[in-house]
Amino acid sequence: MGIRAIYRHPRTSKPGPGHKIYPYLLGGMKITRPNQVWAADITYIPMARGFLYLVAIIDWYSRYVLSWRLSNTLDADFCVEALEEAIKKGRPEIFNTDQGSQFTGEAFTGLLKQNGIKISMDGKGSYNDNLFIERLWRTVKYEEVYLKAYQDGREARIGLSNYFRFYNTERPHQTHSYRTPAEVFNPAPIPVVITIGGMIESLTPDPLRMSGSALNIAPLLS
C-alpha cells in the first residue's frame, strides 16, 4: 500500500487567459529517434521551508535532459531560459508541453516558432500525454530530492545539478539496452581502429575495464 503526504501540493499548471492552445500532435505517433520530440514540464521541489519550481526539457526518445531551471515563482522567464539553453543543443521537430501559461505565452511559443518547431500541447488534465517527463519527476524525487531533504535553494541547485549529470551520463535505461540517455542522444562515432606494432587497437572503451562501481548501477525501467 502506497503512503502519500496529505498536504496540499503547489499547483504548477495554470492556464493563461487569452493564450492560444495548440492541438496535441503525438497521438498514435511512433517516436523512433532523438530530436523528433522534446517535452517540458514543471514540478515543485520541497525544502525545509517552502519549495521551488523546477522546469526541465527532455528529448522524448532518449530521455536526455537537455536543460533545467529552478525558480521561486511561476513566471515564464525560467522556462524561456531553459528553452534557450536547450535549443543550443539541437532542434526538435515537435515540442510538447501542458497548457500552463508559462508554455502558452508568446515568449515561449514565439521562440519555438522562430526556430521552425511544431507546437503540441497535452489535452487538459491528461497525465498520459506527457508520460515520460512525469516518469522523470518520479525518478528525480525518489532518487534525489526526498533522500536529500534540501535545506535551501543553494542545496537544491547543487543536488539537482549533480543528479542530472548522473542521470544523463551514468544512469542506464533498460528500454535502450542499458545505455545512458547521453549515449542515445549523442551516439558514439564509429570506433577508430589503429594499428600499433601489427596489433589492432580499438579506441572504444572496454566495459570489462570499467571500475566495479560503474557496473553496479540499477537500470531505469523506462
In short, what is this structure?
The protein is an alpha/beta fold and 222 residues long. Helix content is 29%, strand content 19%. The chain is built from six helices and seven strands.
Textual characterization of the structure:
- This protein is of the alpha/beta class and 222 residues long.
- It has one domain: 2-Layer Sandwich (Nucleotidyltransferase, domain 5), CATH 3.30.420.10.
- It has six helices and seven strands; from the N terminus they run βββαβααβαααββ.
- The strands form two sheets. It has a five-stranded mixed beta sheet with strand order 3-2-1-4-5, with helices on both faces. A two-stranded antiparallel sheet has the order 6-7.
- A hairpin with a 5-residue loop joins strand 2 and strand 3.
- Helix 4 packs across helix 5.
- It starts with 36 loop residues before the first strand and ends in a 20-residue tail after the last strand.
- The N terminus is likely disordered.
